[in-house]
């Protein structure tokens, strides 16, 4: 049985650039769907942006622009449509360390932005 990291590397060598938070079970499912699509003569990982979008449209799947952030999502959708199977797997088990994490208090003399920076308001 492969580790999650090994599965990520395998998928990357095939041409899938997946989110590092993709669960191990989902990676195994995607590898299975990739193999089934290859059996049907379709290599989703080798498709350019236009071919990927056309493949989705042929299967009545609405697709926006294929860019770096959407490519992996559309590849998954097309694999699922080609094989009529889901790629969704269970979430990975994560140790519960929520007790150690907390949001720092907001200082009385400033405003904290989304990036975590504190803006101070000076009044005269």
Overview of this protein structure:
- There is one protein chain.
- This protein has helices at residues 4-14, 24-39, 49-58, 71-83, and strands at residues 110-112, 118-120.
- It is mainly alpha-helical.
- The protein has a two-stranded antiparallel ribbon with strand order 1-2.
- A hairpin with a 5-residue loop joins strand 1 (110-112) and strand 2 (118-120).
- The radius of gyration is 21 Å and the shape is elongated.
Q: Could you tell me the number of beta strands?
A: 2
Q: How helix-rich are the residues, as a percent range?
A: 40-55%
Biggest sheet, open or closed, and with what strands and sense?
Answer: 2 strands, antiparallel
Mean pLDDT: 82
The low-pLDDT segments are: none
The topology string of helices and strands comes to: HHHHEE
What kind of assembly state do the chains in view correspond to?
single chain
């Amino acid at each position: 049985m492969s580790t999650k990291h090994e599965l990520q590397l395998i998928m990357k060598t095939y041409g899938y650039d997946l989110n590092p938070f993709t669960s191990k079970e989902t990676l195994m499912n995607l590898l299975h769907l990739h193999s089934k699509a290859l059996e049907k003569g379709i290599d989703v990982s080798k498709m350019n942006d236009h071919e990927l979008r056309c493949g989705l449209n042929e299967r009545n799947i609405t697709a926006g622009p294929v860019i770096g952030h959407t490519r992996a999502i559309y590849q998954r959708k097309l694999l699922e449509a080609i094989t009529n199977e889901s790629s969704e797997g269970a979430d990975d088990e994560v140790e519960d360390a929520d007790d150690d994490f907390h949001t720092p208090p907001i200082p009385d003399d400033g405003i904290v932005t989304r990036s975590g920076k504190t803006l101070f308001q000076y009044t005269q």
